[in-house]
Amino acid sequence: MFCRKMTEMRRISRLAWSCSLAVAATALLVLLAADVAEANESFAVGRTSFGDATATFYGGSDAAGTAGGFCGYENPFTRGYGVTTVALSDSLLSNGLNCGACYEVKCKWEASDYTKKYCYQGMTTIVSATNLSPPGLNGEHHFDLTYPMFVKISNPESGRIPIQYRRVPCQKQGGIRFSMVGNPFWNLVLVYNVGGWGNVHSLYVRGSRTDWYYMNRNWGQNWQCSVNLTGQKLSFRVVLGNGQTSVFNNVADSNWKHGQTYEASSNFW
Ligand SMILES: *[C@@H]1O[C@H](CO)[C@@H](O)[C@H](O)[C@H]1NC(C)=O
Ligand SMILES: *[C@@H]1O[C@H](CO)[C@@H](O)[C@H](O)[C@H]1NC(C)=O
């Protein structure tokens, strides 16, 4: 139920297409439409020119309070994100689908006398989305930055500030990583340290003796599929939020274990 072969996904998409041409308004079509939604290959590409948002900060200079969170990265320090993280309003985080995305932010110096007093004009910083924050006071896109990131663009006495943000490629050290966090009956995979567009849009897994299987996003950047892959080498096919796709072959050896993290020898750039 949680696992569909990639070849089946394609067949279902084609079927749904011919059905809709025939306007076959049957219960079957409703079922097929639900399957197609899983395989939704449209990409919500974030803005790459600066747009408006608001920002606050949390924690202290050590970014305390960063652990846990909506994306499933648990401790961003051990995941390589360090203090360069941000909690985003759902208008940008998209229920976790945009976890891992990178943004360049700057204080909107020209906004008012207040911002001219507190903003550091011309300063920008780059952060990765690792958690969920409430929206701005008037429903704006909101960035709740760690203190060390906030003080790069504004005097912290300012509190809440208008900012500008844009999506930028993520620069990561080393390969893309896959944490096997499920159990022998249920594979749950956390994908992190994703370079390039940064957020995973869809994920497929293949054991050395199986076909490719589509994984459903469970929450944050955790993906699930209940096919038995014990004793097989694991390969992953990763589709990013901008549609860029890459196959990472034999990331985990056949003796892989749940609770372990496996790093590919390459990444997206
Ligand atoms: C596909 O995803 C886009 C963006 O996330 C969404 O707007 C659209 O409604 C989805 N389409 C289907 C058929 O689920
Ligand atoms: C999964 O497959 C392995 C190897 O074939 C087998 O030893 C194991 O019992 C299977 N596990 C489950 C949960 O079915």
Kindly summarize this structure in a few lines.
With about 270 residues, this protein is of the alpha+beta class. It contains five helices and 15 strands.
What series of H and E elements makes up the topology? Answer: EHHEEHEHEEHEEEEEEEEE
CATH architecture annotation of the largest domain: Beta Barrel
Tell me the number of helical segments per DSSP (H or I, 4 or more residues long): 5
CATH superfamily of the largest domain: RlpA-like domain
Give the overall average pLDDT.
86
Q: What is the percentage of strand-forming residues?
A: 25-35%
Name the ligand types: 2-acetamido-2-deoxy-beta-D-glucopyranose
User: What gross morphology would you assign?
Assistant: elongated
Task: Label the structural class.
Answer: alpha+beta
CATH-defined topology of the largest domain:
Barwin-like endoglucanases
Task: Point out poorly predicted stretches.
Answer: 21-41
In terms of quaternary structure, the protein is: single chain
**Integer-rounded radius of gyration:** 21 Å
Query: Given this structure, which CATH class of the largest domain is correct?
Result: Mainly Beta
Report the major sheet: 9 strands, antiparallel
The helical percent reads 10-25%
Total beta-strand segments: 15
How many separate structural domains? 3
Report the end-to-end length measured between terminal Cα atoms.
34 Å
